[in-house]
């Protein structure tokens, strides 16, 4: 499929691209059209965040109008999570609208990612942290993009060393970005990844402590690196509780098991049990593992359900709060495209290029749960689209 001929979602790879960004005719296709639905009861409890990092990102999900392949990765457990981060190793990762739409239908916040790494990342940081005007302009652009594309915040991941002077500016940038996001987007979040510390060293702490607490204090939460032990989490919980922010700490769990407690995979529940015992939130990294590690003859659906069934004891699902409940029972993928129960189109190059609302295949499941009792919601159910 030729990217130049399709409406696709793209990341930004440089500071210049970020500074030059403004909406245009092509970017209009990449906007979410689904408002955030405050679905279900949200009691005070530990939260569950998933960070989707799969083969570099922007796979089939980058095609706004869908793809013919019905065997790509899809996510079916929106009601078990609170936040979804779309991650790649590009400088600015913008979530494709299919993820934003599906998340918003289920009351899940969807975040993009800003990441800098190693020497090239250090050079980018040196430039945008040069002075207050520069870092405020960078933050303002991030806010504008989140507003335009209709997603809910950012993961900030600085994986390179900085001078102590630039580290002070970084903390001010993080504080300014968080404040502006809150002013412009209701319910938005900025989350910091446990990476560099107060003196500018790149030193993953695997816990919350006095070396990274200044960044935690400047935003809405911290995503801990995943090579922690039980002692790390105990001291983390003590410090976070003293700040009154116990559940703003997300314990990183790498499902691929790279140095992670329990070794990930189908033992991921072991790590979640430790976090749950301390009332800390959890961030699952690499949920595409259930698709990437399929062996010959294995079913992705069976693999994925086995994985999530092991975690359900630690997931506090959000419940429907009013009736009627309206749903098409559509998971957003399949071999045919339906409108009002009738086959409407099939997966061909011609139909895919016509218009966004008639794409023959969705990339992601979006089991539509409209929890309100208005006549409008019922009429939308009659006009529902489906795949099968």
Short précis:
The protein has 388 residues and is α/β, with parallel strands linked by helices.
Task: Walk me through this protein's architecture.
With 388 residues, the protein is α/β, with parallel strands linked by helices. It is 31% helix and 15% strand. It has 12 helices and 14 strands. The chain has helices at 15-20, 97-105, 118-128, 132-149, 164-184, 213-216, 230-242, 268-277, 289-292, 300-311, 349-352, 375-382, and strands at 48-52, 83-86, 92-93, 109-117, 153-159, 189-193, 221-223, 249-254, 281-285, 325-326, 337-339, 342-345, 370-371, 385-387. The strands form 3 sheets. The chain has an 8-stranded parallel beta barrel, surrounded by 6 helices. Strands 12-11-14 form a 3-stranded antiparallel sheet, with no helix packed on it. Strand 8, helix 8 and strand 9 form a beta-alpha-beta unit. The longest helix is centred in the middle third of the chain and has 21 residues, at 164-184. 44% of the residues are buried. Residues 347-383 have low confidence and may be disordered.
């Amino acid at each position: 499929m030729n990217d130049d001929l399709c409406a696709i979602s793209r990341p930004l790879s440089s500071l210049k691209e970020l500074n030059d960004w403004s909406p245009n005719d092509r970017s209009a296709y990449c906007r979410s059209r689904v408002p955030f639905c405050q679905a279900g009861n949200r009691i005070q409890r530990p939260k569950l965040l998933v960070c989707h990092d799969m083969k570099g990102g922007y796979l089939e999900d980058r095609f706004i109008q869908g793809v013919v392949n019905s065997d790509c990765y899809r996510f079916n457990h929106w009601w078990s999570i609170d936040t979804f981060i779309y991650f790649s190793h590009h400088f600015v990762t913008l979530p494709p609208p299919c993820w934003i739409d599906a998340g918003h239908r289920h009351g899940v916040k969807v975040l993009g990612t800003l990441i800098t790494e190693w020497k090239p990342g250090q050079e980018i940081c040196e430039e945008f942290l040069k002075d207050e005007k520069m870092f405020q302009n960078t933050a303002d652009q991030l806010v504008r993009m989140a507003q335009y594309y209709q997603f809910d915040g950012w993961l900030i991941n600085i994986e390179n060393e900085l001078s102590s002077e630039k580290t002070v500016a970084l903390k001010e940038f993080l504080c300014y970005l968080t404040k502006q996001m809150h002013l412009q987007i209701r319910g938005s979040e900025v989350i910091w990844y446990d990476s560099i510390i107060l003196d500018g060293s790149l030193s993953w702490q695997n816990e919350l402590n006095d070396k990274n607490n200044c960044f935690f204090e400047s935003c809405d939460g911290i995503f801990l690196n995943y090579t922690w032990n039980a002692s790390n989490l105990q001291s983390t919980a003590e410090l976070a509780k003293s700040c009154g922010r116990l559940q703003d700490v997300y314990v990183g769990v790498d499902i691929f098991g790279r140095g992670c407690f329990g070794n990930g995979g189908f033992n991921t529940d072991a790590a979640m049990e430790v976090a749950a015992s301390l009332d800390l939130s959890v961030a699952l990294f690499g949920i595409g593992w259930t698709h990437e590690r399929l062996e010959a003859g294995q079913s992705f659906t069976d693999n994925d359900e086995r994985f999530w069934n092991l975690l359900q004891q630690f997931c506090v699902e959000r419940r429907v709060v009013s009736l009627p409940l309206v749903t098409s029972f559509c998971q957003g993928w399949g071999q045919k495209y339906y409108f009002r129960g009738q086959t409407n189109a099939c997966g061909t190059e011609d139909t895919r290029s016509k218009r966004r609302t008639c794409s023959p295949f969705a990339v992601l499941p979006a089991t539509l749960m409209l929890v309100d009792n208005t006549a409008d919601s019922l009429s939308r159910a009659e006009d529902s689209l489906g795949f099968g």
